[in-house]
Amino acid sequence: MIETASLSRAQLRRLLRERRRALDPHRQRQAARRLYRQLAQHPLFRRSRHLALYLPNDGEIDPGLLLAAAQRRGKATYLPVLNAWPATRMVFQRVHSGEPLLPNRFRIREPHPNRARQRKVWTLDLLLMPLVGFDAEGGRLGMGGGFYDRSLAYRARHRYCRKPVLLGLAHECQKVDRLALASWDVPLAATVTDRAWYAADNRKVARKGQLHRNPCGACE
After folding, report:
1. What pTM was estimated for this model as a whole?
2. What pLDDT does residue 157 have?
3. How many domains does the chain have?
4. Which residues are annotated as a binding site for ATP?
5. Largest Cα–Cα separation, the chain
6. pLDDT for res 220
């Protein structure tokens, strides 16, 4: 595990990106299969009707098996789509099996934007998020663009908006001892790796698969 006390966020981000990039294709496939086994039969995944995932980039652990499983089970699945304008905004759009995808400005594949198929993030049941680094307390270090943090900023304004459940997905080698969170960082309920679950709060995280209704009218 990396000790973070002497590293800046930029240094830590560079080190952890190098770690995950160093995983060869065979180890990446193994990690993806182990991640699938960690989540596919978990109550949180099974009970979610609307869930968002991502397509891997830059060595991120691949949730593709989970995406395929969700679609086979008839779940509504969503991928992030970056807006052309404003360029810092990200939305979540429903995607179907076999749908053609196009590279965005970061060369990450995404559906062709279609507002009729986009869904407000607070109406999703489960959001599976990529990350660069994580700790066992729900801390998440992203790529630095702030797209997820901006999409989830409503949670700071409306603390009773508990949807969606936020799970980070990562390789085990991305774990650090402690992340210093900035004011805009949105903590995770848990991080799931190819080896283990790291729940920020066992009383709240859905190890029992609890999905919350949104009691916050301002989020509707």
Report:
1. 0.89
2. 80
3. 1
4. 9-13, 140-148
5. 47
6. 43
